[in-house]
Structure formats: structure tokens, C-alpha cells
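Thread title: Can someone regenerate the structure for this chain?

I was given the following input by a collaborator and told the matching C-alpha cells would be attached. They weren't. Posting the sequence so someone can regenerate them.
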Amino acid sequence: MKTTHSSRSQSHATAVTRSKKLADADTLTRRHADRIALVHCKDVRPEVLKRVRQRDTSLPLAVQDGVFTVPGDGFIDFYAFARLLGEVGYTGWIVVEAEQDPVKAPPLEYSRMGLRHLAAAFGSAGYVFAP
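Best answer:
Regenerated them for you:
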């Protein structure tokens, strides 16, 4: 796998916004493909997201409530996202991210679960995924 260029600017895009709308990941990825230097993958639990939106919960409290999880444990289609990254020529790092309570979601177990899911998703899109 090729490495990314260090000249790329750093920024952060998120698919879940405070305005309670889902951003279009396809549009964001295609529009800013040349700026993507690192991809952090985390998933979202739909039932928790619905609850925190209904309560207008702050981000720190939503994290404590378990809105985020590892890839494969929520509703994000990482198979489609992997295909999209392949289409735009992404060749950089892909990282499992999990912002969870370690008592509720043991970190090693959940990290492995997320890694397995990403390896399958990105492998199906033609990536060589070497943990």
C-alpha cells in the first residue's frame, strides 16, 4: 500500500452533525478526496443516536451513553465506504476508532471486532488490509 503525502492539509469531517442531519459521506469524500490523509472509522448505534437526538444530548454525554462503537456494530455501511475510497484512489491509513465505556465494551475485544469488519469491507473493495 502506498503512503499518503505529508503535504495534505489536516481537517476533520464527520457524518453526524449537531444540526441533527446526516452529512452525505459520498459527496464529502468525492469533493475532498485529494485532502484525505487518514481515515478514522467508527460506527454509530442507531437506537442510541435516536435517543440522544430526542433529548438534545451533548456530545460528551452521547459518547457516555454509547452512541459510538467500532465498525460493524452500528449502521454505517463500511463496504460502500471502502468502495468509495477505492474509487477516489485513497491509499492511506485506515484506523479503527472506538469511543466507548471500556467497562461496557472491552477495548481489546471491540478493537478486534472492528478490525475484522474493516478487513472484510476493505478487502471486498480490493484493498490489501494488513493488521
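Confidence is low (pLDDT under 50) at residues 1-11, 15-22.
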